[in-house]
């Protein structure tokens, strides 16, 4: 019985680690294939005591029916710097485009990535992944040292881009720069 409880606590801890927003007891029971929420709740209470007893930097929180694994307040400053920022897909695609080009004018990034790129660029600059400086009427955007370190690349290294992605970038660039030919009206009538 103790062995089963220990195994259940390990599974619950792993699940809680992967779901930072928290999860209900019912969903936890479903994920560990238990129909009894009472067993899961008991294991969570035991796990909470285990964290407290060993003086862990983590704590288990119960907010109503939602359970969360959190860093204790006194350790938040330590992990804040170490925590890597996570970006949504759109921001990552904007960053990938800038890096793929080895730097780009902001107006070109916006033309290819749409007006949403302005917010992406702002966020990427705030997080230290790109630098910008004035370049003519636009700004020049380029990856920073932090970018290369984060993605484990050598400074200035050409990004390894799968062929299909490179084709999509090239097509997007082409579509953004191609302008329809002006329509000429025929002034002679027959």
Q: Can you walk me through this structure?
A:
With 190 residues, the chain is α+β, with helices and mostly antiparallel strands. It folds into 2 domains: 2-79, Winged helix-like DNA-binding domain superfamily/Winged helix DNA-binding domain (Arc Repressor Mutant, subunit A, Orthogonal Bundle); 89-177, Arc Repressor Mutant, subunit A, CATH 1.10.10. The chain contains 9 helices and 6 strands; from the N terminus they run αβααββααβααββαα. The strands form 2 sheets. It has a 3-stranded antiparallel sheet. β5 (130-135) and β6 form a beta hairpin. α2 (25-31) crosses α3, α5 packs across α7 (117-126) and α6 (106-113) crosses α9 (163-177). The longest helix has 17 residues, at 2-18.
Brief rundown of the structure:
This protein is α+β, with helices and mostly antiparallel strands and 190 residues long.
Which terms summarize this structure?
190 residues, alpha+beta, 3-stranded antiparallel sheet
**In CATH, what is the homologous superfamily of the largest domain?**
Winged helix-like DNA-binding domain superfamily/Winged helix DNA-binding domain
Taken together, the total number of domains comes to 2
Largest sheet features: 3 strands, antiparallel
CATH architecture identity of the largest domain: Orthogonal Bundle
Number of helices: 9
**Rg estimate, integer Å:** 26 Å
Beta fraction: 5-15%
The CA-CA distance between the termini, in Å, is 97 Å
Order of helices and strands: HEHHEEHHEHHEEHH
As laid out across the biggest beta sheet, the strand order is 1-3-2
Structural class, by secondary structure, is alpha+beta
The helicity comes to 40-55%
């Amino acid at each position: 019985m103790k062995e089963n409880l220990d195994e259940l606590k390990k599974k619950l801890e792993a699940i809680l680690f992967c779901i930072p927003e928290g999860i209900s007891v019912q969903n936890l029971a479903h994920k560990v294939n238990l129909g009894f929420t009472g067993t899961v709740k008991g294991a969570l209470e035991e796990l909470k005591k285990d964290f407290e007893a060993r003086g862990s930097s983590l704590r288990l929180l119960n907010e109503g029916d939602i359970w969360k694994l959190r860093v204790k307040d006194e350790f938040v400053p330590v992990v804040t710097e170490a925590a890597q920022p996570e970006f949504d897909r759109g921001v990552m695609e904007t960053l990938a485009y800038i890096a793929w080009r080895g730097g780009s004018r902001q107006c070109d990034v916006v033309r290819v990535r749409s007006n949403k790129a302005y917010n992406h660029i702002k966020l990427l600059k705030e997080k230290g992944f790109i630098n910008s400086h004035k370049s003519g009427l636009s700004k020049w955007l380029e990856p920073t040292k932090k970018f290369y370190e984060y993605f484990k690349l050598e400074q200035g290294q050409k990004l390894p881009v799968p062929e299909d992605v490179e084709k999509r970038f090239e097509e997007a660039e082409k579509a953004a720069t191609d302008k329809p030919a002006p329509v000429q009206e025929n002034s002679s009538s027959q």
